[in-house]
Predict the 3D structure of the following.
Amino acid sequence: MEALRIRPFRPDDQDQARALVLAGLAEHFEHFDPVRNPDLVDIAGSYPAPNNWFIVAELESSLIGTAALIRETPRRGRIVRMSVAADFRRQGIAHRMVEMLIQTAGDNGMSLLVVETNNDWLGAIQLYSQCGFTPVDHRNGELHFAMDLAARANNESHPIN
């Protein structure tokens, strides 16, 4: 079996990536309208470099995960489009993708990273908490998280003994 690869999105990933994200949304939301996700029609065009990073997790030539980082301001980034195929959840794939985006944000001068999820999406809430995000707001059925990347870097550099 091939090893899991997490790599940048390529245009030929378009159909698999879109289907993967839409399948995850349809699984969670009872009334789901794929038309309400226009960014997925042209992922490369919706997440252009150099201020956006869309990554995929690939196993045996199939995409099993997606995640993106958007630079909202010079110092603030947002994680979006986090999705792992149902058969591959709870194996650390999402955690690896989030860690990669945290590293990318820090490497690109961002000091604050944010993410949001629905307040009933327990797997996502657990993921972001385990990755070090802190809940900062709860409104309209959404839970908002933030991470101070400088504080995180300092904590990793100076572990408490």
